[in-house]
Amino acid sequence: MNNNPNCFSELEDIVPKTAYGEAFTIYMVAYEAWRRGLNVSLENVYSSTEYRNHIHYRVFDNENDESFTWERPLSMPKSTLRIISSKSKTRRILTKEDVPTVKSKVLNTTDPDLITSRLEGFLFPLRISSIDSPEHNEVNYIVSDFQEIKTIIKEKKEEFKSNKMLIEESLSHEHCHAYIVNGEVVGAYRNVPLYIKGDGKKSVNELLKEINELLNKIPSDRQFTIRINKEIEEILNQQNHSLNSVLKKGEIIFLDKEDEKNFSVDITDNLPSNLKNDLIKVISLIPNLSQGEVEFIYDEEYDKYKIYAINTQVNLKKYLYPIEGSARFIPKAIIDYYFPETQEKYLSDDTPKFYFDYEIIEDEIQNARLSKAVIPQYPYEPNLVAKLITFTSSYDGIKEIIKSNFFKLNINGEFNVINENQFELILAGNYQDVAYFHDFLKSQPYFENIEFKDHHFGVRVGYSFNGLPIPKSNVLNTTENQNIEDQEITSSLKTNYNNNNLRKTPKTIKNIIEKIKNKF
Fold first, then answer.
1. In sequence order, what DSSP letters do the residues of 68-110 get, joined into one string?
2. Contact predicate 308/296, CB 8 Å
3. What is the arithmetic mean of pLDDT over 322-341?
4. What burial class does residue 451 get, using C-beta atoms within 10 Å of its C-beta: 0-12 exposed, 13-18 middle, 19+ buried?
5. The pLDDT of residue 516
6. CA 20 to 30 Å from 21, out of 27, 149, 274, 280?
7. CATH architecture observed for domain 377-491
8. Angle (nearest 5°) at CA 448 between 445 and 453
9. Which of these, 33, 328, 24, lies nearest to 189 by C-alpha position?
10. How far is CA 288 from CA 82, 89, 184, 440, in A?
């Protein structure tokens, strides 16, 4: 596979698992701003129309201030949002400007013969939906010919709650996405099933191991790792191959069904300049729109395209983690646009890879127990280093000793229990402070087998203690019989809260909030 390992190494170990799902876009744009030294805060906002909470985040410095939901700025006018939220409105505007769009038609009937007669000129496959409006599809089916339309309506009639039918072209095998920011196509991909591609040298078994290494790097709440089993062997047999076969250079074996397009291939550099210019024009035709994703159908052989929709609530994962081609870091382009004074002004290439925690956002803010969290400034000063220290000890007061040094040195990192007597410390801070910490451990008789080496992975800002039992004297609001594991509250987030939220939280949460409050 022809991937860009540089981007993966840059992002590896900085996305917390709580940000693997829908929160991925929020986290990555906020992270990109944060690592440039910009201020970042996140807050819970209740939607009275959707009856749910949303995470909004604010990015600001002394010159600019912008708030976002997903990757979309909240400063976008509602009139613009209403247009792009409606495929039919978007298509009407584009069609008036002679932009080719996917054909669609709303029919107020479920009569298959009547539907067939009104679809002259439509290209299969088609998406057929029962809807209350063109923007709210309730039932979706992909059909490849008129007979399938009749079959679907006849067999699934009980599922259709309305006689109103939306019919639209849906050439899924040519479905592409391009992200435009400030008049530039900054990334484009097409959806594909998972596959392996031969290089004329490696066996299928070696290619499978290679694609698994790639899949393991994708932050996902789904498990995509390929297991070599009878199903995979059957797929290979159907294509006259085995695990030992060596595929010709460029030869492809698909490992998923044709309609399971969970992965992406980067096509940014393959799009002709005239198509890129047309995609940029699409964004410019929508009033007050400077960024967004254009979803389109593209026939590369004939260099023809049709616009499907414009999206501004996008999961950016497929741009950042294609299974082939170069990764496109869309968050960089977004922050460049809104904060141009920070372009290429990362704090330091030599600074340890810090990241901020998202767990409190997921657990406390989104569940309305806290209203706001302010991320501490990205740690930066000259001569920052990250080290891993492992040691053994049977001393009962180990937590207090380590914790006092975290406080005294204002250092970032974590203290982890490997087993009953073996521990590890991840430390990130000024090289002199880290060296002092190391020398301190060596000077104490109850720390043994101390090993000290560089740490090249992500370091969560703040500190945490994982896996130690809390002394009974320090247990808050618990009974003597409760077995509590110590998960020290980290200083990775500053929190703001109101009294109403505080009164609604359990007593233990009040104590946690008070601990956080006292730290700041």
1. EETTEETTS-HHHHHHHT-HHHHHHHHHHTT--B--EEEEE--
2. yes
3. 95
4. exposed
5. 44
6. 280
7. 2-Layer Sandwich (3.30)
8. 125
9. 328
10. 12, 15, 16, 59
Q: What is the pTM of this model?
A: 0.83
463 vs 353, 362, 512, CA distance in Å?
A: 15, 19, 15
Compute the distance between CA of residue 22 and CA of residue 101 in angstroms, rounded to an integer: 29
Query: Is 103-169 a domain of CATH 3.20.20.70?
Result: no
Q: What value does the CA radius of gyration of the chain take, rounded to a whole number of Å?
A: 27
Distance CA 1, CA 196 (A): 7
Residue 24 near residue 346 (C-beta atoms within 8 A)? no
Q: Please give the DSSP secondary-structure letter assigned to residue 365.
A: I
* Number of neighbours of residue 471 by Cβ within 10 angstroms: 12
Q: What does the pLDDT average to over 314-342?
A: 95
- pLDDT tens-digit readout, 40-90: 999 988 877 777 778 899 999 999 999 999 999 999 999 999 999 998 899
Q: Which of 264, 99, 279, 94 is CA-nearest to residue 185?
A: 279
Cis amide leading into 125 (omega within 30) = yes
As a whole number of angstroms, the distance between CA 336 and CA 291 comes to: 12
Question: What does the DSSP 8-state code read for residue 410?
Answer: T
Q: Tell me: the pLDDT tens digits for 83-136?
A: 999 988 999 999 999 999 998 888 888 787 888 888 888 888 888 877 654 444
**What are the boundaries of each domain within the chain?**
103-169, 377-491
3-state SS record for 237-265: HHCCCCCCCECCCCCEEECCCCCCCCEEE
pLDDT single digits (tens) 263-303: 899 999 999 999 999 999 999 999 999 999 999 999 888 88
Q: Is the pLDDT of residue 16 over 60?
A: yes
Residue 139 is encoded by which pair of tokens? Answer: 């039932």
Q: How far apart are CA 319 and CA 267, in angstroms?
A: 10
